[in-house]
Amino acid sequence: MPKRPSLLAYAISRLLLAFPMLLILLTVVFAVLRILPGDPIAALYGGRAPAEVVAAARERLGLNKPVWEQYVIYLRQIFTGDFGTSLGEIYRGNSVWATVMLKLPATVELAAGGMIVASVVGIGMGVLGGVNRDRPIDVAVRLYGTIVWVIPIFWLGLMLQLIFAVALGWLPPSLRYSSNVDRPPTVTGLLTLDGLLEGNLGHVWVALQHLILPSLTLGLVLSGFFTKTVRANLLRTVSSDFVEAARARGLRWRTVVYRYAFKNALIPVVTILGLQFAILFAGAVLTERTFSWDGMGTLLLDSIESKDYTMIQGTVVIYAFIIIVISVIVDIINGLIDPRVRY
Amino acid sequence: MLYALVAVIVVVLIVAAVAVVVLTAPPRKLTIQLWYNSDGHYGDTEPAVAQVLKSSLEATGKLSVELKSEPWATYISDVGKGRLPFYLLGWYPDYFDSDDYISPFLSTSGAKSRGTYYNDSQMNTWISDQAAASDPTVRAGLFTQIQNKLAADVPYIPLWQTSAHVVYDKDISNVYLHPVVFKWFIMSKTGATTITGGTTDRVVSFDPAKAYDYFSGEVINQIFDTLLVYEPKNATLMPGLATRIPTAANGDISADGLSYTFHLKSGVKFHDGSDFNSTVMKWSIERAIKLDLDSSAAFLLYDTAKLGKTPVIDTPDPLTITFHLSQKVGFFNDIMAYSVAAPVSMVAYNNTGQQTDAVSKVVGTGPYKLTNYVPNQVIELSRDPNYYNPGLYASFGIPSIPVLDKVTLTLYSTATNLKQAIETHAVNVAYRTLNPTDVTDLKQRASTLNVNVDLGSNPQIRYLCFNVPTSPYSDVRLRQAIAYAVNRTAISSVVFSNLTTSIFSMIPPSFPFTQPVFQTVYGTSPNLTQAKSLLSQLGYSVFHLEAIARVRS
Questions:
Q1: How many C-beta atoms lie closer than 10 Å to residue B211's C-beta?
Q2: Is the preceding omega at residue B433 within 30 degrees of 0, hence cis?
Q3: Which of B202, B269, B300, B500 lies 20 to 30 A from B343 at CA?
Q4: Closest chain B CA to residue A39
Q5: For the whole model, what pTM was predicted?
Q6: How far apart are CA B314 and CA B331, in angstroms?
Q7: Which residues of A touch B410 (CB under 8 A)?
Q8: What is the 3-state secondary structure (H, E, C) of B165-228?
Q9: For B299, which of A49, A57, A162 is closest by C-beta distance?
Q10: Closest by Cβ to A158, choosing from B196, B410, B416
């Protein structure tokens, strides 16, 4: 039997494979931005400044150079860790890397909240449907899975805002934090965690209150897919030979389902969880806009509006990098928990 | 022979049939394209505006309008390059003189950057004459001629003036929709020392040498004072850091109109404790001109205010400063009240680059200090206990400014979030910009929600532009026909819940020298008879017109 390569080698090869993928992505983003008509300088001045001022600004920012030269400069900068400075209306002159890092914690917090809601609700509903196959409750679960999967995020967000914030007044309608409460000192940028580190539960509570509706919005929409997957996997596992064998040995149905079938049904869910992160980040863009949540999604939309080349490139590259890293991590976890995975 | 005869008859019949078909066929329409911005630069209402304009032009029966749209970056770039033939634009003034609604549009260089390429030497002469004139009667005469010619030549069609709105808790007073800049430092709230405000605006920069957008200017106005400032409710100038307004009568404007002298208040200190004096004032103006930052308003100083790239500024003593202009500029005082002319601390700022927006780096002489800024989220303004001019508005019933200790401005991504914030009282004041339907809704529920909804006019104007030298718009009759056909009332009622005001000159009604010339010439409501008659008169045939329109598209 040939020697199994180590998990480390597998992880490294996965990361190396991610490299050409990132390069292709960088090139596509660069090309698309240049092919589209319009440019950031014209957008900045709004047609107010004289032509020579506009020309001078273009020269200063290197936008008058041939496209191939801009591309070479761009690649060299990215691979030396220099993401450049923003050309857009809001962050002009600020470092792209610093700006993205400033916004990243907000998106991470939202993504984590969304993922928790999606996992708890999705897995719970899936199990509920799976163990009650074809009973009314299963029909309801299936219907739920389909409906939330197709609900537009901004609509669901608006409904939750109208019900829980405007009508009932239980939760704040938008933002990450109350504007008239002091913020916890920034350590991680995650307001809930920073509140905990500060040891001020009041601040944690304010941050959590603001996190609930956006997390629900993002999480519920994603939970539809989880529900369907968990249910389908559970049904498949329940009808598999080892479950039948366990039943034949006289184990109780509940024990079989929850101790054996459920665990096995969750393995593919971990894979899907990894894939869902890409969708999660895409959903986070819309959720952020709906809740005035100042994260990377808002940054990306703002940059696109002002044709901020460097900021769009930087944000997309960092998004892509995060998703690649997560998918590698998920692959590794899969390798650890699923003996069938060979590398 | 018989065959030849038959052939001739057949040919004659065919020719006659074709002639009958051609002559009796209903005249085909001229197809034109109307361009608008698609990504919300002017709010979410723009597609509806374009739709209303399309139907009012098509009501002539002789025009067919194709709607075309582009995102802002592309749109403004195409406007600048003269690629759009017929399009919607908006304008917010830079300085509060009627000139700012005329020279950026009708002077040859201004029209070029608006993409209309209007070029008329007589117009250029009138414009530079009125800019140099200080006598209001002389200016009024020139503005009359300018506006009459504007209505005759129709390079633009003024449509409406944007509405301004502010929604605030009932117990807040001194909330005024000021025509120039919204003043937070005069507001008070019963039993409170702080308030929170909400907006969908974003800060571009707190550096006066950089800021050239409404909201940055609004925040700068709370933190930085200028030589001259505006009264709390209207655009009348009064002394700020200066002790009096320069006039020819008090001798602060020289006889040739080329020198402006300001006498400065003594004992004024910046928020960082450094002194304000004529040297700092001179340095600040020179700094803005020297830096000439991208998309800043520096050109207002060196070009519009005629200070030039190497300004000549005398500081005979610490409390006197004299600006020397290369040409007369009637509205120089107004530019000295604009944020680009605000003095900055020589200790905190340098003249080699744009100042960052870090809290300790934003240092002015105004009633509030910047005490916290989280970009895209929160701006916190706190009282400067050493403010030099608390009694500025005492004669207007506001004994001491700033009234509140702290104002926190919260930045929302969407108009819907802003509406919910004021509905749930998460903010005390919502200013810029709610959707028109939301404003109407809040107004109806104002007493239940315990808020006031104030509506007012805004100096922003919206208008149509023609690329004047290009066919078919090079024929003035087509532009005039469109001016007859546009339905301003429909835009206001269909799109803006009647919150906007129709305008009939590029100079909005609240500004001096305005005359409703488009109303006089083209009427208040659409005059389809005139529009049709002009369209029929257009010298060439309808086929020809359509061919041209197709080539262009």
A1: 26
A2: yes
A3: B202
A4: B73
A5: 0.82
A6: 20
A7: 175, 179
A8: EEEEECCEECCCCCCCCCCHHHCEECCECEEEEEECCCCCCCCCCCCCCHHHHHHHHHHCCCCE
A9: A49
A10: B416
